[in-house]
């Protein structure tokens, strides 16, 4: 399969252990191109570890994964196709917002004319134009977050991994963020979206995966996850999430509703 036809993400038995702790256990999943995949799970479920493996920052203990057809063990083949917004975006206090984005574009070898146009339009979209020539050390948390997101998608990667993209944003900026994610997905970018803010996932995700104690315990589109398996009755995504991730030591991997994970 050529990279152009390959799914955005495919994992097979992906596992990461840290000593006695199994952070991610036998994760097998497929994310289609151009979709928003909501990646949910309680604190410590293994979401960040999964994203760090898929972005080549951490090596799996076992299993395999491909991002647009490229094995994650081959960092050079994967990185041109991905963007990553981690919890703490890698930005430099001593640069201005605009300089930071120009620097990020340079690392990606973007042609200057194209990148400066894109930087301007993203700065405008996120209401950062007025502050673009101030040093980042004077930015608020939300302003830093905006710069982090812009630099994750500036090179129009095939897959953007976004960890809590609306963190620290005021309601208007959070709205802009959600609209931007929807626009990017319309342009066939795949968004791998990890957040605890369930209405954001409910609004944007085509598919949701729920991780619990390192295992994928439920997967499906939002409506499927929200409908009670036994009665078909609808509930909120929050109710579904709480039910799926409640501690059931006797049957730890049996979600009570929603499509079971593959
Ligand atoms: N570098 C590490 N060394 C040891 N244990 C780790 C390391 N990174 C993660 N873990 C452990 O792996 C498990 C999964 O952590 P991870 O950060 O992936 O969870 P998460 O789902 O992203 O949580 P949160 O929602 O709180 O950010 C946790 O038990 C954590 O303590």
TrEMBL record:
Every ABC transporter domain range: 9-238
Stretches the record annotates as Disordered: 243-262
Keywords in alphabetical order: ATP-binding, Nucleotide-binding, Transport
Superkingdom, taxonomy of origin: Archaea
One Pfam assignment: ABC_tran
Keyword ATP-binding: yes
Biased composition (Polar residues): 245-254
GO MF annotations, alphabetized: ATP binding; ATP hydrolysis activity
Protein name per Swiss-Prot or TrEMBL: ABC transporter ATP-binding protein
Organism: Haloterrigena alkaliphila
